[in-house]
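Box 4.2: Ligand-aware structure prediction
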Amino acid sequence: SAVKSYAAVDLGASSGRVMVGRVGPDSLELAEAHRFPNRPVRVPEGLRWDVLGLYAGVLDGLRAAGQVDSVGIDSWAVDYGLLDADGALLGNPVHYRDPRTEGVAEKVWATVPAAELYAATGLQYAPFNTLYQLTAARSTAQLAQARRLLLMPDLLTYWLTGEQGTELTNASTTQLIDPGTRDWAYDVASRLGIDLGLFAPLRRPGDPAGLLRDEVLEETGLTWPVPVTAVGSHDTASAVAAVPASDERFAYICTGTWSLAGLELDAPVLTEESRAANFTNELGLDGTVRYLRNIMGLWLLQECLRAWGETDLGALLLEASKAPALRSVVDAGDAAFLAPGRMPERIAEACRGTGQPVPETPAEVTRCILDSLALAHRKAVQDAQRLAGHAVDVVHVVGGGTRNALLCQLTADACGLPVVSGPTEAAALGNVLVQARAHGLVGDLPGMRRLLVNTQPLTRYEPRGGTERWRAAQARLAGT
Ligand code: LFR
């Protein structure tokens, strides 16, 4: 028939999902086949991903999805598994929040100064970039044994198909890719003693990534042949591909555990000013650049909820909406919030440290977090426009945070721009659309976006004024 089905595996920091997208010439429907928790595990050597549990969840999901025309996988970025000479996995992949990278960047910069590194790779400083992880792992027995490095979605694809590759959008988060040439940053790698031979050949979104192996077909009940298609395997690349924009004058915020806020550009911005402002140039679909800033995101709230135990989130958000606005704000871009644990206390400490009232109740803490996120969104959207010389009229909010109406409204207020929120499952939709496109069903990126505008429910939030208060809160945080 004219309608095709695609399975999108979308792995997030706290859960994995297998979604089925049905795509026709003028239709796009997404349904959840299976959702499973992703629980990182702390063992004596550090914080690890339960990658076998994730793979089992993917197989369960494919069984629940039923027969599909293709499968695509996206996940969070930067993390990887190592394979030995027999192709067997060496240990459990290290979680990007593992503290092994503390103090590593300074060592890297002693060899390749931070300014040179930015000019060559365009990546904002984050302690967990693969480059720093590999440097932290330098003298481990595991790395010495390793013959192959596969990023998370590429590792799962390898287990499904037996074929190895390195998908480009996710590779661009390693800090080992030159965003200008869209090829490896050979000079940086060689100066830092990183063996690029560990990486499998690059592949691009839309490239074939093999067929499900016989054993996988047997376990999932699917019928040969089921191709796996490379998608924008970095979840943020898939999410940006599914931003329902109608022209180029838009900013986006991909919300979830993280908030990734910025612009889609034709070319990277590699200026010293951009580096100082901590903007990243990751690669998107069709040669686009995702010029954005990583902001801590709803992680701040997730960790507080974990600390508070049983909480009714709906009631909490309602109370937070009535709490006094902009009483205290924290810097939601601060890497001090990266590690898990003690989040309410750490937020209180940050408020105290900046001479602001300490939020006491869960509702007050929640309000502080949402105000802080909206403020960080404002700063990122403003800075990106200035640094890239690219003005916008609208801010698109996609991902899990679209469910949080208060966050969307505060973001519109803070930015002084309309917010269009949706779709919630942007990463899965971007994943599905790239597969559909590879099979000739939809056209280019603007065509994909038109299909989204015509089929997905979107909500609009108008700014309610009061931008002066947001500017003042920003100044308070900057200590000016
Ligand atoms: C979001 C995300 C971000 C990346 C972070 C860590 O899920 O992929 O883009 O910076 O996770 O990998």
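In the box above, the bound molecule is beta-L-fructofuranose. The longest helix spans residues 362-388.
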